[in-house]
């Protein structure tokens, strides 16, 4: 299969990977042949990237870092919890949600189980979902990314669970906001910006009253927008004043937000997002945490369609964790536009003069 921008998809193409609804249920299943009506529907739903079946790349299958079952269960739980809170009166100090902590510890336990069972953990987030489901899928992605960093740092199980619960619920304060404010396309006015920024304290106040959620988890909600140089909010904390869990969640939040399509902008490529994070080292985030995170990110994920400086077009077929910028690319089109009936592999580790210039 190959990953393509929706603008390059045409009627008759078949979906190679299931697309999920905001609740985590199947929206369009793998194998479905796309008509123009389906393509237009995907565009209207804010889905700009899809995986398409292709006979020359059928054996290229990007593997998510967690199983489909774990992901769907996690998204469904986040969706159920957040939407139930949205339906409650918008007052601070809401009544505690019974067994919230237990439920989310179980969910994150499944995530850690999947991550720990992999020989090589390289971030290749391949879940596709509607724009309306961004908040719920984003929370799960942030938890997965935070879990990878936590494992890399050697956290024990209790530390991982505190981090993971905080990561799954870091944006729970958004349930206090009107839904149309989440995805506003235009610039925020001063009053709206203050209201948005209040979601950190709203989330903290909600979580700290949960008897089975630790204050460390609650601080992920409070501090995930604090920045290393003191430029963040709500308290303009800096450096070691920001708990490490919150810094980890902040990095994961920014990376997934940048690489996700939003109503007000196009997404960054993984390569562009990692460059942004590197540039933010010891400014927005602690440099050592950024370096650790980027070590586990596939900047050119498997199945990405890429253009080389030679003019050739290919599909990434393998990424070596020790050389993430130099993947193996299956060449499917030559520089003169000839589409190959017999594609061939090019390992960029062995071709120092050849680089990837852009992704399609």
Automatic annotation (TrEMBL):
HD-GYP domain span: 114-309
Keywords, comma-separated and alphabetical: Hydrolase
SUPFAM superfamilies associated with the record: HD-domain/PDEase-like (SSF109604)
Gene Ontology MF terms in the entry: hydrolase activity
Pfam family, one: HD_5
Origin: domain of life: Bacteria
Transmembrane residue ranges: none
PANTHER family associated with the record: CYCLIC DI-GMP PHOSPHODIESTERASE PA4108, CYCLIC DI-GMP PHOSPHODIESTERASE PA4108-RELATED
UniProt protein name: HD-GYP domain, c-di-GMP phosphodiesterase class II (Or its inactivated variant)
Species, as recorded: Aneurinibacillus migulanus (Bacillus migulanus)
């Amino acid at each position: 299969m190959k990953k393509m921008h929706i603008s390059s998809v045409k009627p008759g193409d078949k979906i190679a990977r299931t697309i999920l609804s905001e609740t985590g249920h199947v929206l369009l299943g793998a194998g479905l042949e796309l008509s123009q009506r389906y393509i237009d529907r995907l565009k209207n739903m804010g889905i700009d990237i899809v995986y398409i079946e292709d006979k020359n790349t059928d054996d290229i299958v990007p593997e998510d870092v967690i199983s489909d079952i774990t992901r769907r269960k996690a998204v469904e739980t986040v969706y159920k919890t957040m939407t139930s809170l949205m339906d409650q009166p918008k007052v601070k100090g809401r009544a505690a949600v019974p067994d919230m902590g237990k439920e989310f510890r179980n969910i994150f336990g499944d995530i850690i189980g999947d991550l720990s069972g992999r020989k090589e953990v390289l971030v290749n987030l391949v879940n596709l979902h509607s724009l309306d489901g961004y908040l719920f899928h984003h929370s799960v992605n942030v938890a997965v990314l935070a879990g990878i960093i936590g494992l890399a740092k050697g956290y024990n199980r209790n530390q991982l669970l505190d981090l993971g619960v905080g990561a799954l619920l870091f944006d729970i304060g958004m349930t206090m906001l009107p839904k149309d404010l989440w995805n506003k396309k235009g610039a925020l006015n001063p009053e709206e910006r203050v209201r948005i920024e209040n979601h950190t304290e709203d989330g903290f106040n909600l979580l700290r009253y949960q008897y089975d959620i630790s204050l460390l988890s609650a601080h992920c909600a409070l501090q995930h927008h604090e920045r290393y140089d003191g430029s963040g909010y709500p308290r303009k904390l800096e450096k070691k004043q920001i708990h490490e869990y919150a810094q980890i969640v902040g990095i994961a939040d920014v990376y997934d937000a940048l690489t996700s399509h939003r109503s007000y902008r196009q997404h960054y490529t993984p390569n562009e997002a990692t460059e942004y994070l590197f540039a933010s080292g010891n400014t927005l985030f602690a440099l050592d945490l950024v370096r650790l995170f980027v070590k586990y990110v596939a900047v050119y994920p498997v199945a990405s369609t890429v253009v080389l400086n030679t003019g050739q077009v290919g599909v990434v077929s393998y990424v070596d964790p020790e050389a993430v910028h130099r993947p193996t690319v299956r060449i499917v089109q030559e520089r003169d536009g000839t589409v190959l009936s017999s594609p061939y592999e090019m390992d960029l580790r062995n071709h120092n003069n050849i680089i990837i210039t852009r992704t399609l």
